[in-house]
Design a protein that fits this description.
Layout (H helix, E strand, L loop, with lengths): L2 H5 L4 H5 L5 H5 L9 E5 L2 E4 H10 L13 H16 L8 H15 L2 H10 L4 H21 L8 H10 L1 H7 L3 H31 L2 E3 L3
Antiparallel strand pairs: 1-2, 1-3
């Protein structure tokens, strides 16, 4: 079952985490088991989610402590998953999942380092596999929805080349290569703006509750 399907309707976890259990009573007083950062359309975003994502570099490729904006990025990710789930996305190709897993292992430096990071975040290999599959579903949806970002006008390409002359000179890109770089950057910027507008619309349509840190 996809990770987004397992987590949907998980708002009850916010209540369960507050209920004392025998195991919790045995822990040192004051030790926090987990904390709810947000609830997005019924899906709970936990502090452990932020630690998991930050320690493995799953949101931006950078490995490190959970930054303050990790919660916001996780909310955006759940908003996208909420929308993607409406269209019953196809299962990602095994090769694509394996390639993403290999990138995570490479980023961590070794399998042992990856296993240690998973253990520290209280997650396992299945959680990482589910995260990657959800990422691939999101990527496929975005590619389909925003495929027509639009080719930039020649005037815009010329203006971009002029305003980024120093950058292009450092990379040695001239002529057709410079025009290609300009078009790629302009298309990416346009796609980024479209996705930002789409996320803003999702935030208006899907209930998001953020909890103070």
């Amino acid at each position: 079952m996809p990770a987004w399907a397992r987590r949907w309707g998980a708002a009850a976890l916010a209540v369960i985490m507050l209920m004392p259990t025998a195991a919790a009573q045995e822990r040192p007083r004051g030790e926090l088991l987990d904390r709810t950062l947000a609830v997005v359309g019924g899906a709970v975003v936990l502090q452990s989610d932020a630690q998991f994502a930050a320690s493995l570099g799953l949101l931006d490729g950078g490995v490190g402590p959970a930054a303050p904006d990790v919660a916001t990025k996780l909310v955006d990710r759940w908003l996208m998953l909420h929308e993607v789930a409406r269209f019953s996305p196809a299962e990602p190709a095994t090769a694509a999942v394996t390639a993403r897993l290999d990138l995570v292992r490479l980023r961590m430096g070794s399998v042992a380092a990856l296993d240690a990071a998973l253990a520290r975040s209280g997650r396992g290999a299945d959680d990482l596999d589910g995260w990657i599959r959800d990422d691939l579903r999101i990527a496929a949806y975005l590619d389909q929805r925003f495929a027509s970002a639009g080719a930039p006008a020649d005037a815009d390409v010329t203006a971009w080349i002029t305003s980024h002359a120093d950058e292009l000179a450092r990379t040695g890109a001239t002529g057709a290569d410079a025009a290609r770089v300009a078009r790629e950057r302009l298309v990416l910027a346009r796609r980024t703006d479209l996705i930002a507008d789409w996320l803003a619309d999702l935030r208006r349509r899907i209930e998001v509750v953020m909890f103070p840190g």
